[in-house]
Amino acid sequence: MTSPIDAKLAELGITLPTPTPPLANYVPVVRTGNLLFISGQVSIDGAGKIVTGKLGAGVEIEAGREAAKLCAINILAQVKAAIGDLDKVVRVVKLVAFVNSAPDFLDQPKVVNGCSDFFVEVLGDKGRHARSAVGVAALPLDAAVEVDAIVEVV
Asked: For the Endoribonuclease L-PSP/chorismate mutase-like domain, which residue ranges apply (predicted)?
């Protein structure tokens, strides 16, 4: 039987990728009690192509939103790898998003909405979360966006 979340992903034409292994000395997910702490997921698609560049310096807001959505997809892939079943998600608690930004770029929240909107679309009210949207001078691999998450599970 297909879970409601898997069915919603299929309806949207989204296949969760194999989670990206860590690029350094850390683990992708730490579980403590009913919380999963998901390490930062960059804007990389299932084929391994990274959405790169700076918002406000060659990367437009809509492309940034799509990059942020990729981060959300990768977060769900890490969650599924950790717990096996996305229906065990109780709530996305908190997101911290980093946007590779030109010095005068001020629309980080609009970019990060690509991630937030995706979680709500797929998870409904369980996808509503607290969040921070931070502009940074650079990200690993020149990624356009990186997002880490705290997710409550059963």
From this structure: 8-147
Indicate yes or no: pTM above 0.90. Answer: yes
- Over the stretch 69-128, which tens digit does the pLDDT of each residue have? 999 999 999 999 999 999 999 999 999 999 999 999 999 999 999 999 999 999 999 999
Rounded to whole angstroms, how far apart are CA atoms 1 and 19?
Answer: 23
DSSP class of residue 44 equals: B
Distance CA(136)–CA(99), nearest Å, equals 6
Q: Which two tokens stand for residue 96?
A: 């911290």
Q: What is the predicted pLDDT for the residue at 112?
A: 98
Burial (CB count <10 Å: 0-12, 13-18, 19+), residue 83: middle
Pairing of strands 58-59, 54-55: parallel
Q: Name the one residue in this structure whose structure tokens are 């929240």.
A: 109
The CATH number of 4-153 is 3.30.1330.40
Identify the three-state secondary structure at position 145: strand
pLDDT the model gives residue 20: 81
Task: List the one residue out of 37, 149, 150, 152 whose CA is nearest residue 88.
Answer: 152
Quick check: 1 pLDDT over 80?
Answer: no
